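look at this:
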Amino acid sequence: MLNVSAETVSSSWPDRCEHWADAANDAAKVRTPRQKNPEPLILSGFGISLKVDRGALLVRNGYTHHPQTNAPLRFFPGDLDNPDRIIVLDGSGSLSFDVLSWLAEQGISLIRINWNGEAVCVAAGSGYAADQKKIDWQRRTRADETARLEFASDLVTRKLRASLATLKDVLPDTPKRRAAISSLEDGLNEISRNAHDIAGLRGIEGRYANRYFSAWSGIEMKWTAEKRHPVPTAWRTYQQRSSILSGKKAKNWKAAHPINAMLNYAYGTLESQLRIKALSEGYDPGLGIYHHCKKGSPAYVFDLMEPYRPVIDRAVLAFALSERFSAADFIMRKDGVCRLTPPLAARVVQLVSI
């Protein structure tokens, strides 16, 4: 008889998928009988299906492993159990125009995030009712260098303060962490002293972002079942936020480390939520004040994201340092890019929903 250890069984793909699905269920927020459901509905895998059936939305989640049972979910108009947003993580499937109409009527947003953590589609349930006064404010503030610098300086100041909180509360005490904390405290003073224009402010922000992430260098995740699922050497120690796979110019896409892969999904989730917020409040998501306005880019959403990024970092870091992972929780593509398995991606999205 083949003797299979408990560690071997628990490290298999189906068991790891079930592990993260159970963790997500255990972490679901408790609500009062009259409170609207605060949790997003997160879908992933192959064969995702959304359709309208006899006035209700019928949802079937995708398949991520075998064996797996996916009972259909039925949402009725006006029900408090309805999510305020549905997040589709990569995967495949289908929906109809009737579904889009049903979601709009119920004020439910639909978001699709690809494997790289990019929000590739956001259909705001509230629609987009432009508020001309707010759009005029965006244009005036961007055109006025003094007002623009004041707006942007506030964003970066809040970002540095949140970065300090993340360093102090989550990372272990090391010389790199202490140096980064001291540096970012100096950075708060430098903004008021030396940020005379947007270019100068961007330079300050970039310098201190590098020092912030330098404190992450050397942190290690905890691993299990390594005999069955060996851990790549590059995953053992975190080195930097930018990916070594993105070419000569440092970029954050094409994550080569699990923590960066989790951050990409987390930032994509943040972007989608703030885009919905901007749309629902009547702002133009593409009319950035601090960030460059580029065709197709939600520059104003990127503005709004800045102070929240360290908050997202905090959630991802705390999760990455407290859990014990298996290499089966991640997928390494042929080009070395690290991706999350769908259930783990869903757990990360749940962690960072604001």
